[in-house]
Amino acid sequence: MNKLLSRLPHVKNKNVALFYIFSIIHACYFAEGNWIFLYLFYFNYATIGLLDSIAFTIWVLLEIPAGSIADIIGRKRVIRFSFLAVALGILMQALASSPVMLFLGNVIFYIGLAFYSGSMEALTYDTLIEAKVEKDFDKIVATSKSLQAIAYVIAVLIGGYASSINIRLPFLIWGIVHAFAFIISFMLKEPKVDSIKVTLKSYLAHNLKGIKELFKPQLKPYLFFIFIVLGVVFWYDWGFIKPAVVISFGFDSISMGYIFALEGLLIAILLPLLPKIRKLINDYTGLVILNFLVVLSIFLFGSDIGYWGVLPIVTIALAGNFAYGWISIIINKHVSSNRRATSLSVVSTLLKIPYVLTAYLSGRIIEEGYMTQFLYAIALLLGLISLINLLKNLRLLNKKAMLN
Q1: What is the DSSP letter of 229?
Q2: CB 273 within 8 A of CB 81
């Protein structure tokens, strides 16, 4: 075991080691394969969509200021608060005796996620700068994603078994694990690299500068993938759309857990290849390929292909994880250190907007039985604007300069 751990890039650095641990914990969605059944006990799809929209809106409104607060008061303090709020929110859902308590627990959970957004990645990157090994950040990201995938597989399988005992048990385990993360978050050390003291008076200016970082010339070719493609992947993956799609192909709660475990296993095997793939094709070409895999998957979601539906379900999971890891590397490379947490929070915020705006509508459509037509419409619209984006940027395909 010690030999295996020693192979993780820069694992002897305490902050990097904690980054790996926290990445694993954030991937432990013990309730992934069964949360929908607890919520359907209290609400229908349309109501879930409405409540999700409210909770996600709170998440969105907090995420950018949370990143700025992390830049101002220190990322380790924000990370501690995040784990405390997430643990409390999940445990409230586990013990909920009413729809109101379930909803409030969900809101607190998302408040915690908002304060984690971008902060841990930024702290880790600055730690590497301090050690003068920031060039290895892509390896650390790829490794963390692989560890997350393994943790996800194990957590889904444990959660599936736990739910057969009691539907609330996966939530209880999930909350306890995050409470443990809160305790060990006190071991974090704030890097001194580019740390600045930002007064409340300069808060808005700092926030605006963090947003402007994303519109640097080096990042402009990637804005479409950041805001549109990742937004659609989030729309599918985070809310009730994903379990609804899986159920539409004829899978039950048990097979749903197996499918999600298969996703995680393939991600764990393939995502570590990201640094090697980036050496073979440039960033823009790679993201274009992932873009159209997402479009194809959503189109197939609307098709009557029965159990073959596992193929697009797995494909969009792989494409989404590769795209997020790829874009994270690009952003961290080109954004200034002292505004990195703010910029990453902007990205995380904006990619949630498609789900926030359509959650209630999506729920109503599913309730009315028009999910197939809705998915076709999403796929065709995304495919069209993706094609337009590609035609405008054909010169960037396989352009070697994009590697630098």
Answers
A1: I
A2: no
Q: Has residue 1 been placed in a domain?
A: no
Measured CA to CA in angstroms, residue 398 lies from 277, 284, 289, 402 at distances of: 13, 8, 12, 8
What is the secondary structure of 303-327 as a DSSP string?
S--GGGGHHHHHHHHHHHHHHHHHH
Give the C-alpha separation, 354 to 368, whole Å: 21
8 Å CB contact between 27 and 149: yes
Q: How many CA atoms lie less than 13 Å away from 57 in the CB half-sphere? A: 11
CA 44 to chain centre: 25
> Phi/psi zone of residue 96: left (φ > 0), alpha (ψ -120 to 50 degrees), beta?
beta
Q: What is the CATH number of the domain that holds 43?
A: 1.20.1250.20
Domain that holds residue 52: 9-403
Domains: count for the chain: 1
- Residue 148 CA to residue 44 CA, distance in Å, equals 31
pTM: predicted TM-score of the whole model, two decimal places = 0.73
- Residue 6's pLDDT is what? 61
Is residue 186 classed exposed, middle or buried when 0-12, 13-18 and 19+ CB atoms within 10 A define those classes?
Answer: exposed
pLDDT tens column, 322-355: 998 888 888 877 777 666 666 766 777 677 777 8
In a domain? residue 4: no
